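Bumping my old thread because nobody answered last time. Still need a sequence for this structure:
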């Protein structure tokens, strides 16, 4: 690697432990990292947690071949036992552990605070955490969440051909990914997500950024778009070139009808994120929207529940309407209550 970024990674680690997870003296902290990952961020996060007085364990393990239930069989049983037993779990894995059975136990135990920052090497953790003004980011995200929770009907379009409409459920949460200081699932800052009323989702979704389905289904940055035709929340057609054909065959092979249902939609608002082929970062590219299908995390409070796996695709340069009000236009934030904040964040 051209740069060691020692100071920057140490700063990011401090933010993760102190500002995001708010680790306390005496708490147990588990850091999971697979064999293909850059080890430096795990080392620095462990040092920061140790300095606070936490009881720290770094689990460096072999890389599973797939997400969720698909990858679970490649993991040691000792790791599966440790995950729901810890107070704080920080996941750096390139090949996610989320959505497997240990993750489900940890998310339902009312104790474990989980922060997913999977795949963040030293360069990415610098851009996406160390270089972010956390207070300004929190102010911006809180306002986006407030506006989104008020919206009943939404429409999203993109220059690539996305045109999808849906309704929101007022009682469902809008997840605000920033801090991980409460029990349950939390993810890299800069993402805001929710589960629309599943059967109200209709239209066309075009992934023109990247696609991630775990293991061999991690397609990375797309050379050609993947078009999903959606009726009442279910994918009924997948159109495109070789990438689309691959996704069709992958879903057929999984042989789980639950994989065809849309689980959530998210905004991407991390000012340091770049389209790189890593789902964790790509989902947060500024001005993008992301759709996940398959396994629906319990934090969304939706109807779908578990599936054999999960996939995510990125729609770049999104235009978003909240009822009849424009939030952003082709990736640029235009809402009057947000535009000035976005400029202050360099966007």
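Sorry it took so long. Here it is:
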């Amino acid at each position: 690697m051209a740069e060691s970024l020692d100071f920057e990674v140490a700063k990011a680690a401090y933010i993760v432990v102190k500002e995001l997870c708010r680790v306390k003296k005496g708490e147990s902290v588990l850091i999971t990292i697979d064999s293909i990952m850059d080890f430096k961020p795990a080392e620095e996060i462990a040092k920061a947690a140790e300095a606070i007085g936490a009881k720290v364990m770094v689990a460096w393990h072999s890389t599973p071949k797939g997400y969720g239930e698909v990858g679970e069989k490649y993991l040691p049983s000792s790791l599966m036992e440790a995950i729901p037993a810890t107070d704080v779990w920080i996941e750096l894995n390139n090949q996610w552990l989320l959505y497997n059975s240990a993750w489900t136990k940890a998310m339902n135990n009312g104790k474990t605070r989980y922060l997913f920052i999977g795949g963040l090497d030293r360069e990415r953790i610098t851009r996406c955490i160390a270089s972010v003004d956390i207070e300004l980011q929190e102010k911006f995200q809180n306002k986006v969440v407030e506006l989104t929770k008020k919206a009943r009907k939404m429409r999203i379009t993109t220059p690539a051909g996305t045109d999808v409409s849906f309704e929101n459920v007022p009682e469902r949460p809008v997840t605000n990914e920033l801090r991980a200081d409460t029990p349950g699932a939390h993810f890299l800052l800069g993402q805001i997500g929710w589960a629309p009323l599943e059967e109200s989702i209709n239209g066309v979704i075009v992934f023109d950024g990247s696609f991630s389905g775990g293991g061999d289904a991690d397609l990375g940055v797309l050379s050609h778009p993947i078009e999903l035709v959606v009726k009442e929340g279910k994918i009924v057609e997948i159109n495109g070139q070789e990438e689309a054909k691959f996704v069709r065959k992958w879903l057929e092979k999984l042989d789980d009808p639950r994989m065809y249902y849309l689980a959530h939609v998210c905004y991407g608002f991390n000012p340091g994120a770049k389209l790189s082929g890593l789902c964790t970062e790509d989902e947060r590219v500024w001005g993008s929207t992301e759709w996940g299908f398959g396994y629906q995390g319990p934090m969304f409070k939706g109807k779908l529940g578990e599936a054999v796996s999960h996939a995510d695709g990125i729609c770049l340069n999104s235009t978003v309407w909240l009822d009849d009000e424009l939030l952003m236009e082709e990736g640029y934030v235009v809402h009057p209550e947000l535009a000035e904040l976005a400029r202050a964040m360099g966007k």
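The CA atoms of residues 37 and 306 lie 27 Å apart. Let me know if any region looks off to you.
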